[in-house]
Amino acid sequence: MRRVPTILRHDTNAGARPDTKGEKLIMTDRVILGCTILIAVVYLYATTLIPSLEIGDPLGPKAFPRLLGIALLLSAGLLALEIWKKRKTNEPEVPPSELFEPLIIKILLCVVVWTGAYYAVFNPLGFIVATSLYLLGLMSWFNKGKWLTNVLTSVLFSVGTYILFVKLDVSLPKGVLEFLPF
Questions:
Q1: CA–CA separation, 46 vs 40, rounded Å?
Q2: HSE (CB half, 13 Å, CA atoms) of 39?
Q3: CA–CA separation, 127 and 178 (whole Å)
Q4: Which residues of 126-140 are buried (b: 16+ CB within 10 A; e: fewer)?
């Protein structure tokens, strides 16, 4: 039977040595924090490249993307605060060599391929169907056995965000659901 890395277990302390309790999660949190900050900075820079129009909405097309970038930075700040609180418990670091176990690399590659498939079917299937399938696939993998929760979450999130974007006058593809009234 294959050994599942501690990072991927639901119970991160199961089978861990007493001296390594939670150390992989701390390193994972730091990697996620760094990636989040990097993505937020690049995203906020990209919003400065959006052209401003002299007519139309006084806030212009930059307002919503900038709010998303700021929300991403705030999320990174909250994660940094959580990491700082965990640091006080003096939990040891995980060696970087353990972060690149074959199973972790395989899962990351699968997520990348699944995301590429999502982008490929986004326009033909439409936002609601493509996003529901994308989320259902990911949630079924990471939240195994909870089909009702996974289906409801992926469909309701997709429909809810579609309606929100339509209310904000953002055009999203309807795809196979052309008959939708909104």
A1: 10
A2: 14
A3: 11
A4: bbbbbbbbbbbbbbe
Q: Report CA 94 to chain centroid distance, whole Å.
A: 23
| Region of poorest pLDDT, from 61-75, 121-135, 152-166 | 61-75
- Under DSSP, the state recorded for 181 is -
CA distances to 60, 66, 165 from 71, rounded to whole Å, are: 19, 8, 17
The structure tokens listed for 34 are 């760094």
CB atoms within 10 A of CB 56: 9
Q: What is the mean pLDDT of the chain?
A: 77
Q: Which two tokens stand for residue 140?
A: 């079924």
Tell me the CA end-to-end span of the chain in Å, nearest whole number: 51
Per the document, the length of the chain is 182
Q: What is the DSSP string of 112-131?
A: HHHHHHHHHHHHHH-HHHHH
Distance CA 57, CA 53 (A): 9
pLDDT at 12: 46
**DSSP 8-class letter at 103:** H
The pTM of the full predicted model, rounded to 2 decimals, is 0.54
